[in-house]
Design brief:
266 residues; alpha+beta; Glutaredoxin; 2 domains; 4-stranded mixed beta sheet; 3-stranded antiparallel beta sheet; 30% helix; binds glutathione; GST N-terminal domain-containing protein; Glutathione_S-Trfase_N
Length: 266
Amino acid sequence: MAPPAAPTAPHHRTPLFLPRRAAATARAARAASLAVRAQPNTAAASTSAPEPPEKFKPPPGFKVPEPKRFEIKSGQQSSVLGALLAIPLRLGTGVFVLGYSPSLVSPSEIPSDQYALEFGAWKVKEESKIGQCKRPEKPIEIYEFEGCPFCRKVREMVSVLDLDVLFYPCPRKGPTFRPKVLEMGGKKQFPYMVDPNTGVAMYESDDIIKYLADTYGDGSVPIMLSLGLLTAITAGLATLGRIGKGNSYTASRIPPQPIEIWAFEV
Ligand SMILES: N[C@@H](CCC(=O)N[C@@H](CS)C(=O)NCC(=O)O)C(=O)O
């Protein structure tokens, strides 16, 4: 059964780069729907030719937007600057996927249908280990909230492993998903993870990170997520620039479908 609709993460993070939100929320939904569509129709298969693969189409009335220069919306500069504080504190842990390695190559080394950054006469070839890692069939479910440093650690690991995740925002006093965590795990503590692919559910950020690394990575955990108290302190300081945003519940409507956000935790 499809998981309940999740409200947009606060941001997700609303801010474009907020990973959490990494959200995954949407990606999870997308993965789930793709997984369902991928099921062969055995009855039809025996009597008729296979159906052509479904094509992705823009919604009716969609107009391709004009490319615009990057800019920060007026009035949002301080908000973005506050969020950027996390980058030096966390050394950009969630920015790079597992085994990321860029190299400058001759343009002829990049297939013509593949995008690559250009750098003078060179192109940037980007490689990672993710292609060799197992992918979850159904999105992993994570109950958490933005201002929680332990949740941030898990969101960084989600980014490192490039996972589809259904995030359930659980801000303080949040009436929607908090009670569910108490029901499922026995206590209101965040983050809480449920992996519907394996039936595993757990609290404790370090345990979740290790579980994700072992199950969907190569078993390694980035150094900035392995430093114990120092990891917790820097993750906590990284949330300071957001001055408490994403901690408390604001009355809201739950969207009928999970919101899709493509992002990563900086
Ligand atoms: N050792 C736990 C600590 C988790 C924790 O203390 N989370 C806080 C939020 S930052 C919490 O659940 N507080 C109770 C609440 O928000 O109701 C971990 O690493 O996951």
